[in-house]
Amino acid sequence: MRLSNIPLLRPWAALSLATLIGLSSGADTDQWKTLKPQANAIRELLSLDGTWNFALPQSREIEEDQGWTSVIPPKLQIPVPASYNDIFTDPAIRNNVGWAYYQRHAIVPQTWSEGRYYVRFDSVTHEAKVYVNDEEVGGHVGGYTPFEVDLTDLVSPGEQFRLTVAVNNILTWQTIPPGEVVTNEAGKLRQDYNHDFYNYAGIARSVSLYSVPDVHVSDVTVTTENDDEGNEGTVNYSVETSGSNDTQARVTLIDEDGNEVAEASELEGSLNVSPVNLWQPGAAYLYTLRVELLSDDTVVDTYDLPVGVRSVRVEGNQFLINGKPFYFTGFGKHEDSPVRGKGYDPAYMIHDFELMKWMGANSFRTSHYPYAEEVMEYADRHGIVVIDEVAAVGLNLGISAGLRGDEPPKTFTEDKVNNETQKTHAQALRELIHRDKNHASVVSWCVTNEPASAEDGAREYFQPLVELTRELDPTRPVTFTNVMGATVDKCLISDLFDFLSLNRYYGWYVQTGDLESAEVAMEEELLQWVDEYDKPIIMSEYGADTLAGLHAVDEVLWSEEYQTNLLRMSHKVFDSIDSIVGEHVWNFADFQTPHTGVNRVDGNKKGVFTRERRPKAAAHELKRRWLDEGFPKLGNGTSGA
């Protein structure tokens, strides 16, 4: 299908829902349809994390370079998982635009002589091509979701092979997030983009080899139901298998004490639990759904899936979890840390969760991309509520233009955000929902962050994507985060969503330094949203940049006191409006941003913690608010984590 043949409609024609459901971006493969591997009595799992050899290609076009056809010497070595940008001291690597090579040798265990085996990448930012010895064997487009390559017919058991991954960090108008490569005055390539976080690249999450039997579980989908009293629960499940059409099954639900509480013998069905232990915010309970495939009463494959029984719905201006109103306290966050960049680090992950627990935060948004699967699993285990966001940030040319004082260009055009972008966006949603559909902690899908929702073309672009999201998962509410300027009288898409998420910076980007005027303006706008929509409203971003250690008697911008006073002002407004059902401060911790503008000094400083996770005064202010027994918004049957 050639998009150039589609007639334009204000200013281009959106693809239909049916078309989006059937389309995928990148290679025409299902390598992204991967169930997270696990080790058990039948399956084996080997980590390929560690030190890999690293090199930049000699040519911008790797098809000319052919760097995977030879051994890359250990002159430069790189840790996996980690972004490569901050590891080395060479600016050519940090500022690289285009491809980079990762390489190591691996061995398929000799014992894997039966069944199938795969190499799985939890994420490669933003595009990957995978080579076994001299042959290209797979790849993936999209930097935050997993993919795998079947090695069974490529490498024999006991054989060592050379594994090379070519990693591309280029963003275009047809990627998610979008960007543009330009040539500067010196003739060098520069990557421009509209989102306000650094374009870290590399193998940011784990790589593994794993084996499965010929007949195996290839996917599991779970949804849950429960009565509002919490007495009875239902686990609806569907199992997909590979390798046989006449598979027998045994599906068992096991409680945390190891007791079997329900059993079935079909690949699709429902398991009833009475009494049920519900998954609650701040009080997680996880059952284990064990799927066993049988041949003549012999178990040929088994897979365990943690399951939390809970319900989520929106009614009027309330967000309900297990039938009770829930109030979100927490943050927009980033996967960002010194040296590692966006590389997954379990120490940082657990420490971040402990800091959220310390201050009473019960939730976060995965701004602005899917986080590592381990983060979602930890949230499941510890009762943290998650709004799960796809990497659709930067779909708004007016933001950066406004900061420069330029006339804002149009976003939705043939040569900017167009039908190809929409297809990529649809695939990103498809992959996110496939990966995270079974996580009890995930209570909503966020389709995009701060798009140009007041521009012509916004509705044509987003309506099919919202419909696709609901088609893929009808059990969770859908939202997007609305940017300042797309006010209630201008936004063209807010009616499409189940609840409103507003990013507002009163007292910082507007009414700068004047908190009295900021309070009046914020309350006035929020009441307009309440009057227009009978929907819950989450304040999905608010805050101020702060230089840790800068103190002032007066309300001085960038001081810790000003950040704290701005939060207090905002909370006063939130507490006065019943439809406000959550507050996510921007941001949890300071994070790195592009080095191409003067409006950031070593990153975004809106964190209530520094990048090294040292608390600013604002963190203590939030702790006092969120753990106060008199906190009015938590007097509705819910509590902090």
From TrEMBL:
<dbReference type="InterPro" id="IPR023230">
    <property type="entry name" value="Glyco_hydro_2_CS"/>
</dbReference>
<dbReference type="InterPro" id="IPR006103">
    <property type="entry name" value="Glyco_hydro_2_cat"/>
</dbReference>
<protein>
    <recommendedName>
        <fullName>Beta-glucuronidase</fullName>
        <ecNumber>3.2.1.31</ecNumber>
    </recommendedName>
</protein>
<dbReference type="InterPro" id="IPR008979">
    <property type="entry name" value="Galactose-bd-like_sf"/>
</dbReference>
<feature type="domain" description="Glycosyl hydrolases family 2 sugar binding">
    <location>
        <begin position="47"/>
        <end position="213"/>
    </location>
</feature>
<keyword id="KW-0732">Signal</keyword>
<dbReference type="InterPro" id="IPR006102">
    <property type="entry name" value="Ig-like_GH2"/>
</dbReference>
<comment type="similarity">
    <text>Belongs to the glycosyl hydrolase 2 family.</text>
</comment>
<feature type="domain" description="Glycoside hydrolase family 2 immunoglobulin-like beta-sandwich">
    <location>
        <begin position="215"/>
        <end position="310"/>
    </location>
</feature>
<dbReference type="InterPro" id="IPR036156">
    <property type="entry name" value="Beta-gal/glucu_dom_sf"/>
</dbReference>
<keyword id="KW-0378">Hydrolase</keyword>
<feature type="signal peptide">
    <location>
        <begin position="1"/>
        <end position="26"/>
    </location>
</feature>
<dbReference type="GO" id="GO:0004566">
    <property type="term" value="F:beta-glucuronidase activity"/>
</dbReference>
<dbReference type="GO" id="GO:0019391">
    <property type="term" value="P:glucuronoside catabolic process"/>
</dbReference>
<dbReference type="InterPro" id="IPR017853">
    <property type="entry name" value="GH"/>
</dbReference>
<dbReference type="Pfam" id="PF02836">
    <property type="entry name" value="Glyco_hydro_2_C"/>
</dbReference>
<dbReference type="GO" id="GO:0005975">
    <property type="term" value="P:carbohydrate metabolic process"/>
</dbReference>
<dbReference type="InterPro" id="IPR006101">
    <property type="entry name" value="Glyco_hydro_2"/>
</dbReference>
<dbReference type="Pfam" id="PF02837">
    <property type="entry name" value="Glyco_hydro_2_N"/>
</dbReference>
<dbReference type="InterPro" id="IPR006104">
    <property type="entry name" value="Glyco_hydro_2_N"/>
</dbReference>
<dbReference type="InterPro" id="IPR013783">
    <property type="entry name" value="Ig-like_fold"/>
</dbReference>
<dbReference type="GO" id="GO:0030246">
    <property type="term" value="F:carbohydrate binding"/>
</dbReference>
<dbReference type="Pfam" id="PF00703">
    <property type="entry name" value="Glyco_hydro_2"/>
</dbReference>
<feature type="domain" description="Glycoside hydrolase family 2 catalytic">
    <location>
        <begin position="312"/>
        <end position="626"/>
    </location>
</feature>
<keyword id="KW-0326">Glycosidase</keyword>
